[in-house]
Specification:
alpha+beta, D-Maltodextrin-Binding Protein, domain 2, Dipeptide-binding Protein, domain 3, 3 domains, 14 helices, 28% helix, SBP_5, SBP_5_dom, Peptide/Ni-bd, D,D-dipeptide-binding periplasmic protein DdpA
Amino acid sequence: MFNRNRFLRRVAAIASLALVAGCSLLSDDDPDSQGPIVVGTTSAPSTLDPAGAWDGSWELYRNIFQTLLAYPSGATTPQPDAAESCSFTDSTSRTYRCKLRDGLKFADGDPLTAEAVRHSIDRIRTINAPGGPAGLLGSLDRVETSGDREVVFHLNQPDATFPFVLATPAMSIVDPDDYPTNSLRKDTSVHGSGPYKLESYEEGSEAVLVRNGNYQGFAKLQNDAVTIRYFKDSAGMVKALKDKQIDVTYRGLAADDILALQEHDNEDLQLVDGAGTDISYLVFNPKDPWAKQPAVRKAVAQIVDRGAIAHKVYKDTVDPLYSMVPKGLTGHATGFFDDYGNPSVSKARKILTDAGITQPIPLTFWYTTDRYGSETALMFQELKRQLDASGLFTITLKSRPWKTYVVGYQKGEYPVFGRGWFPDFPDADNFIAPFVGEHNALGTPYPAKEITGRLLPHARAESDRARTVKDVEAAQQIMVDDARLIPLWQGRQFVGASVDISGGEQALDPSTIMMMWTLHRKTSW
């Protein structure tokens, strides 16, 4: 149905934007008069609808949508954003109440009410999109509203991590008038209430963000506009940075490019080196006749040389990882090293012969060509070299671009495949829960009933996260014993930028998502 009021609001917004743009041309002393800050990344969104993505699409969502809670620069726990306040109202962490800021509006002027919040959360579960974030809401029973500003979340079990869930971009608040209850939105328009509004979008190429004049939240915008350009690989992205076609790079910098920036081979560029908790790992599909066998998976785990991958492929810009929970988080363990020790072909052969397997095992390893950086192909070549050299495996490598790669693993087409994980929130729970259960982020069922039925619920009932260590360690050990997922490395976050760009140090939230609003050009004196 044609909405005349909305149409008039959009015309007014366009006219306003034109006036602002015209004024900026006359202001040579304004650092932003040089145009939008241009950010390059190799992590393009898979969909613009938050109900459909549990992946790197969140990079864009964080900047154009709003969540009840989020992370101001420097914060490690969620703080109110669209909300004025949020808290558990009971002693068992089962009732969570939020009060919205007064007068919230979407970018197009529509009011943002408690009903919009309820609609946004409920449609995630109703649609239950493959690869979508419904799995994050496993502890949610129902959402209630009271008036226009109060939202109450009733949980089916104690869950002290629920505020962290609400702070993920998956819980972005969308306009009920524009986002259907039962299906994903397919077009390239976006109606959010975040710091920026999406002025235009070209899939796989570019997202143009401009300041949202209706935004109310904690973000203090240091620029008026950001353009995000999506690259297929690090080489093209870094060339664009050196050629001054982009101002900042994020996600997907190759090791050689990182080293070159660290060595200051270009005085016009800078590198921000930050701690990271992103991980890379292998997934084994239980539907495959070989990958479903524990002995096969454990033999792979026994042979994989993480140190060689970190050194030879990534030039020590990543660290070997021996658990799905990375270093720096409460409960991190080293179970894969404790159980398997150093890589050993003889130990792997014994694992297989004890299981009655004596012939070389054929396995196909899949990876994506355009998601986790240009070293991904080199890493899989190194994995193939290690496993083939053992004489115990015959590895075939196959790859696809991310858009079709996702579809393939959701359909269970890959015997073994590579994934990366950028945390939803900085808690060990988020490196266990998303990977287990019948409906998980991998599209590959992993029941793990001891984890899902006892350990995680027990840990989530504990508001003091330091007291969850025993449960977290026990869950990790089960994952080591199953070897359904084999961790490979833990990364650090590097932001490459022109020397005239500031704010990169504050740009990454605890989930290593870039908050574009902190970036700005240095004022010349």
